[in-house]
Design brief:
The protein has one domain (6-265). It contains 2 helices and 16 strands. It has helices at 6-13, 229-232, and strands at 17-25, 34-36, 41-43, 78-87, 91-105, 111-113, 132-139, 148-153, 159-164, 175-178, 190-196, 204-218, 225-228, 236-237, 243-249, 255-265. Strands 1, 3, 4, 13, 14 and 16 form a 6-stranded antiparallel β-sheet that branches. Strands 2-10-7-12-5-15 form a 6-stranded antiparallel β-barrel. A 4-stranded antiparallel β-sheet has the order 6-11-8-9, with no helix packed on it. It is globular, with a radius of gyration of 18 Å.
């Protein structure tokens, strides 16, 4: 059945899934830095480590990956009908489907080629249209001044280079940095490699492909924000999605975040 009227939404809300979230987000590098909730303690529990980029298997993520939010797959189609979040500091949340992740990349001035990167999960049926690449800091690192180039295939199988001109120096654990896509790129189908221009002093990081589902702002510390289905636009949640949060805080302090997703199947 499809959604044709508000009565359809109302009937689905009466039997909706309610997915609760509570995470202790670690200290960010600076105000405005992005932090991954993947390894943060709380509920859902801390996510498992990403496979080594040279491992050649296990890169795709799904609902059963340790750290994913738990929910029931749809009998028809799951939609996000309500999103409520609060935090002890003001900031912005991105709710995303974590599609693919690798780790173990270091800081030598070299190219780290992903061994057998494989395809995106089967739930992605558009060759990665709208997908994004993020650098994810699995281990805190030392000082750096270099650029980072990520080579990838876009949805049309064109080879593209996403470049961070100057990476964040001494990034902290769980920090994330978005990889800009060049003009004309409409998404990410597959990561090929990552190249550092200079040596960093220490640490380990990886790359994560994700697809945004929703964004919500918490304008004041300790004050919650709720978006209903009309504000969200009823974004679809595919079966087997690996749901996670990315957080951008308005202060360079650790934060406890609490929220709830309301998901309808219609």
């Amino acid at each position: 059945m499809t959604i044709n009227t508000m009565d359809d939404i109302a009937s689905a809300m009466a039997v909706s899934q309610k997915i609760n979230i509570m995470k202790n987000i670690t200290v960010p590098k600076a105000i405005g830095s992005w932090q991954s909730s993947w390894q943060a303690v709380g509920f859902p529990p801390s996510g498992g480590p990403a496979p080594l980029y040279s491992g050649g298997a296990g890169f795709a993520c799904d609902e059963n990956t340790v750290g994913a939010m738990q929910y029931s797959n749809a009998s028809v189609q799951n939609y996000l009908a309500k999103l409520a979040m609060t935090s002890v500091i003001a900031g912005t949340f991105i709710l995303a489907d974590r599609l693919w992740s690798c780790g173990g990349m270091g800081f030598a001035p070299t190219t780290y080629t992903v061994l057998s990167p494989g395809s995106l999960p089967a739930r992605i049926t558009d060759n990665g249209l709208g997908c994004e690449i993020w650098v994810e800091q699995f281990i805190a690192a030392g000082a750096a001044t270099n650029s980072l180039t990520v080579t990838y295939l876009d949805p049309d199988n064109n080879t593209r280079n996403g470049i961070i001109p100057t990476v964040v120096s001494s990034p902290l654990i769980n920090q994330m940095q978005p990889v800009p896509q060049p003009a004309g790129s409409t998404g990410v189908k597959q990561i090929v490699s990552a190249t550092n221009s200079n040596t960093w002093t220490s640490g380990s990081w990886g790359l994560t492909i994700l697809k945004r589902i929703a964004t919500i702002e918490v304008p004041l510390q300790g004050v919650g924000k709720t978006l209903d289905w009309s504000a969200l636009g009823l974004p679809k949640i595919p079966n087997d999605a690996c749901l996670m949060l990315i957080w951008q805080g308005g202060a360079a302090t650790a934060s406890q975040v609490v929220g709830q997703l309301v998901v309808i199947d219609k």
